[in-house]
Specification:
This protein is of the alpha/beta class. The protein has 20 helices and 15 strands. Bound molecules: 1,4-dihydronicotinamide adenine dinucleotide. NAD(+) binds at residues 211-213, 245, 274-281, 297, 302, 332, 401, 408.
């Protein structure tokens, strides 16, 4: 068994710098701070053991300390190899102790993990054997997951599936490099225990999922009758996807571009693949900087929206030779192909803000004959192509707003994470109300999250009169819209 304080971060001496940033972030996260005030005494998460897999940033540090203030125990990993802010990770491990005697939350995350290390960290958040031993308890894992992109949930489900089958198949579906690493991780686990993941799955009451891509995976598991515990889709709270995905990207995409390349955006041709919530934020940010923005879509409704918003909408292949900045934000795979990359202008910038790196055919680029990769600086690579031209690829095709910058700013993440905290409370404290299905939070809680952020912006809300409320058929105190209202 490991010690309860086992952890792995880059450098504990960064803790003080991290703590300063946390202090400033708390001031920008009124949603989380008011939940601490509201639930700090009743501690509805007492007894909750949360395995967290979400970008280990300063904002996530404030989330973690909110969960612990509400009574939870937590183990944490990042959900991306480049997204950790090492000072935030250090501050969380040190907690109220000192770097010599840390006494905070076990974090397994540093900026620049290898894929092998990434999956090892994901495994570590499920090993609660030391805590169980200390508590004299017979559980071995967490009873809650807080996930972003679904990797933690995937590990439990695949682990259990292979244990029931008695072995990890040699040729399980998917043959990517990363998939082989996941299989190796599970093979190692199966060699030491034949029922670890089955037990872990049985102990888990629920998962709260942060992003579009992870939510997509959850609905698939539920559809196939394979979901092992209840799930709350945090992404589709209005105060999450219509704010974080859109306004968050509007801030952090140009931040990533500037920190990576400092190329002037104004006057350039920028191409955005996908006009969902993320694509809308990306296109608006680039246009705001003076770029001429072109959009691609596969959905006629989103395509029409983009056109009405004033963007040219066309296929990438038809204009690729004009593009200076190419951004992908679809949640789909193979959106940018090697042919597209070969057709780009000299030193065009290629970057992805969708959850996984397979939006860009990075595997194809890496095996392309005659292509050469030169590191300009970490997470910025020039690829010399056989055409004689080069392109600049950010964060190796992974989320560049987290790899090249520090992700979304605190205020918008306070909305997302207030939903996360409410969802954790809901599943943990009222688990009996939930089946093995995917749920969204009730609209009243969504409205509550928005309310918690109004004062900080000086917003004065108009209050319905009882007569007006009766006239439009809603309670004075909300909820104000039917569930299918689109905002
Ligand atoms: P969404 O579903 O609202 O939008 C995606 C859009 O892409 C859809 O309109 C879809 O029709 C379109 N699309 C799909 N395949 C396409 C293709 N081949 N070419 C062009 N368009 C295509 O999803 P949302 O919320 O915008 O999320 C997109 C991705 O960004 C997801 O992977 C999500 O997890 C991720 N995300 C990343 C964040 C970040 O910080 N970088 C923040 C939030 C979400």
């Amino acid at each position: 068994p490991t010690s309860p304080f086992e952890f792995k971060v880059a450098d504990l001496s960064l803790a003080e710098a991290g703590r300063h940033q946390l202090r400033l972030a708390e001031n920008e996260m009124p949603g989380l701070m008011s939940l601490r005030a509201e639930f700090g005494e009743s501690k509805p998460l007492t007894g909750a053991r949360i395995a967290g897999s979400l970008h280990m940033t300063v904002q996530t540090a404030v989330l973690i300390e909110t969960l612990t203030a509400l009574g939870a125990e937590v183990r944490w990993a990042s959900c991306n190899i480049f997204s950790t802010q090492d000072e935030a990770a250090a501050a969380i491990v040190v907690g109220s102790g000192t770097p010599e005697a840390p006494a905070g939350v076990p974090v397994f995350a540093w900026k620049g993990e290898s894929l092998e290390e990434y999956w090892e960290c994901a495994d570590r958040i499920f090993d609660w054997s030391a805590e169980a031993e200390a508590a004299g308890a017979d559980w071995i894992g967490p009873n809650m997951i807080l996930d972003d992109g679904g990797d933690a949930t995937l590990l439990v489900h695949k682990g259990r599936e292979f244990e029931l089958a008695g072995a990890v198949p040699e040729d399980a579906e998917g043959d990517s490099h990363e998939w082989r690493i996941i299989l190796a991780t599970l093979r190692e686990s199966l060699a030491t225990s034949s029922d670890r993941w089955t037990r872990v799955a049985a102990e888990i009451m629920g998962v709260t999922e942060e992003t579009t891509t992870g939510v997509h995976r959850l609905y698939e598991l539920a559809r196939d009758g394979e979901l092992q515990f209840a799930a709350i889709n945090v992404n589709d709270s209005v105060t999450k996807s219509k704010f974080d995905n859109k306004y968050g990207i509007r801030h952090s995409l140009p931040d990533g571009l500037n920190r990576a390349t400092d190329t002037l955006i104004g006057g350039k041709v920028a191409f955005v693949c996908g006009y969902g919530d993320v694509g809308k934020g990306a296109a608006e940010a680039l246009r705001g900087q003076g770029a001429r923005v072109i959009v691609s879509e596969i959905d006629p409704i989103n395509a029409l929206q983009a056109a009405m918003d004033g963007y040219q909408v066309t296929t990438l292949a038809s204009v690729v030779g004009e593009v200076d900045i190419l951004i992908s934000g679809t949640g789909n795979k193979d959106v940018i192909t090697v042919d597209d990359l070969l057709g780009l202008k000299h030193l065009a910038i290629v970057a992805n803000v969708g959850h996984f790196d397979n939006e860009i055919d990075m595997a194809g680029l890496e095996t392309l004959e005659g292509a050469e990769r030169i590191e300009i600086k970490p997470q910025v690579h020039e690829w010399r192509l056989p055409t004689g031209r080069s392109i600049l690829v950010l964060s190796e095709g992974r989320l560049m707003n987290l790899g090249n910058a520090t992700g979304h700013p605190s205020f918008v993440m306070s909305n997302s994470f207030a939903n996360q905290v409410l969802a954790q409370i809901e599943l943990y404290a009222h688990g009996e109300n939930y089946e093995r299905q995917v749920y969204v939070l009730p609209k009243l809680l969504d409205e509550k999250v928005a309310r918690l952020h109004l004062d900080a912006l000086g917003v004065k809300l108009t209050v319905l009169t009882p007569e007006q409320a009766a006239y439009i058929g809603v309670p004075v105190e909300g909820p104000y819209k039917v569930d299918h209202y689109r905002y």
